[in-house]
Amino acid sequence: MSIDNQKLGADIFCEALASEGVDLMFGIPGGVVLPLYDKINKYGHKIRHILSKQEQGGGFAADGYARATGRTGVALATSGPGATNLMTSIINSMMDSIPVVYITGQVVEELTGTDAFQEADVIGMSMPVVKHSYFVTHAKDIRRVVREAFYLANTGRPGPIHVDFAKNAWITKAQYDENPRMDLPGYIPIPEVCSNSDIQKLDELLEKDGVKPVILAGHGVEISHATKELFEFAKRHNIPVINTLLGLGSFPQGDPLWLGMVGMHGDAVANFITDEANLIIAIGVRFSDRITGRPVEFVKGKTFVHIDIDPSEVNKIVPAGLPLLGDAKDILSRANRLLGEHKFTNWWKHIGDLKEKYGFLDFKWCPAPPKGYLSQPRLVKMISDATDGNAIVSSDVGRNQMWTGRFYRFRHPNSYLSSGGLGSMGYGVPAAIGAALGVPDREVWAICGDGGFTMNMQELAVIAEHNIPVKIAIMEDASLGMVRQWQNLLFDGNLSSIHLHNPDFVKLAEAFGIKGFRAETYEEAKKSIDKMRKIKGPALITFKVYPDEHVFPMVPPNTPLHKQALKDEDLLKKS
Amino acid sequence: MIKTSRYIVAAKLQNSPGVLARIAILFRKFNVNIQAVDASPVDEKEEFHKIEFILETTKNDNDFEIVMKKLARLVPVIEVRYFKQPKLF
Predict the structure, then answer these.
(1) pTM for the predicted model, two decimal places
(2) What ipTM, to 2 d.p.?
(3) Which residues of A are catalytic?
C-alpha cells in the first residue's frame, strides 16, 4: 500500500464525523488539538464549528442540541484545563442519558505520565461518569473509534462517550475506511426484552379489585419516541399520567388524563395521587430521590410495573413487581395490541375531588408577591401563553427550573431542556444555543435565575456572534433563590451567602450587541415579551421578581410525598 | 457489628489499559471492597480476559445484584458470573 493513499489523522477524524452525520460541533482549540484545527475549516461546508467561550458552555450546548434534536451532540476541548472544564457537562449528560460525544486533546503519547504542560488524566477523571471512553494514539484507530462512539452514544440507553486523542493521532497517517468494523462484543443495546406473556400480566394487575393505577412517564418515553404509544396506552386504560421533570412533554398537557409533575416541587394533586396509587406503571424513570420523597414510605402498599431499557435500573430503588425490560415504544405498542380496556371510575372521582380541593395547574399555592415585585410562576405562564406552548424552553437550576416545569405548558416532546439529575446551574443559556442551532425553525427560550445566568453568561458572545435567535428571560431577585428558600424554611431564615451583586443585565446584553429589556410590571412584561418575539435575532429580558417567593408544594428531603408542604406555615410550624 | 457479605465475582472482558480501573471505580462508587483480584487470559488466543474478584460488602443481596448489573453494563465487559461465599467462620 502506497503511503500516498493514506490520510492524516486530522482529516480522517473530520471525514469520520461528517460520515456519522455530524453537522455541528462546539469547541475551543488549544495546543494539542492544533493539528486538528489546521484541517477543520476545510470541512466547514459539512461541519459547522461554533467557538464556545468556555468549555462547559460548549458541552452544555452540545447536550442541549442532543436533547432538542435527538441526534448526538459533539463538544471538543483541548487537554488539561479545557478537558477539566468539560467534566461538569459530561456528568450532566450521563445523569440524564443524553447522547453526546465529548472529544478532548491529550499530550503526545511519549509525554503521557510526565506531567507535561496541560497534561491531565482526563480519561481517569471521566471514567465514573461516562457510558464509555477511549484513548486514541494513532490515526489507524480513529475511524473505528468514531463509529463506535456514535453507535454507543445513541443506542440503548443513551449517554456520553468521551474520546481522548493524543496529539499523535492527528499527525500520523492511515487509510480511511468508510465502513470500519466495530469491535464491541460486550455491548448489547437492549440487553433483555420482555415476552408477550410478561406484558399480559399487566392485565391481571389492572383487573384486581380496588386497583388505583398511575402511569409515571419519564424521560425514557421521549428517548424511545414512544409518546404516541403512551397516549394510546393511557387512553385505552383511562389511567392518569404523571410526569417526572424530564418527562414533561411526553404526554399532551391539555389532556384530562394528565395530572402534572410529581416530586419535591411537583403539583399537589400529582404528589397525592402518586402517594395513594397502589399500582405504578413507570416508563423510563429511575426513581430519583426527588421523586420518591422517603423511599421506604413511597414503596409501601404499591406494586411497581417498571418499563425500562436498562436492567440495572430495575429493582434499584423500588422493587419491581412486574419488570418489563426493553424499548418502551416496543413494549407499549405490544401492550396496546395485547391488553383490554379499563375505566377506573371511582379512582377518577377521587382524583376529581383532590383537584377541586388542592387546585390544578393554577396559582393556589403561589400567593401573589408584595407590590412592586413580579411573580416567577406568573411570568412563566405569560411566556407559555405568548408562545402558545410551542417553544423549546431551557431552564437553569433552582426555582426558575421548577416553575418552568410547572407553568410552561409544553405541547411537544423534547422541548423542556433542563439539568435534571445533576442539577447544574449555568445550563440554561448554553443549552438554548444548542437547541436553537439544532432546531432552527422553532422558537427557543432560556428561563434563567440570575445566579445560573451569571455562571455561563460569557456564552452571550456566541449568541451575538452568530445572531442565534435565543430569547433569554432572567428572573432577577439578586439571590440564589432555591438556597434562599431552604434557608428561609429549613434554617430559621438564616440567610447565608446568597445575596448576588448583579450587573445591569440590560446594559450587559447591549454590550454584547443583544437587545435588552427590563420589566417591573406585568404590563411591561407582556409588551416586552411580544417585542422580543418579533425580533429575528436574540433578545434578553430581566424581570424584577420577589426574592422570598417560595416554590410550593415542597416535599422536604426524606419526607413522604403526602406530607408535602403547601405554604410557608407548613414548614415553619415544625421548626 | 456491621454485617458484611463476601462474593466471588468473575468478569469476562476485552482487555485494554484502564479496564480494571473502570471496574474498581464502579465498586468504589457502591462502597464495595476488593479483598482479592486475579486476571488472566480466557484462552490461548488471548482475545478475552477474565478478572476474578473476592469482594466484601455491607450491601444486601438485592443491592449487590444491582452492582453486578452495572458491572455487566460496562462496555468492555462481556459476561459476569458471581455467587455468595458462605461464611465458614
Answers:
(1) 0.97
(2) 0.96
(3) 55, 117-118, 167, 482
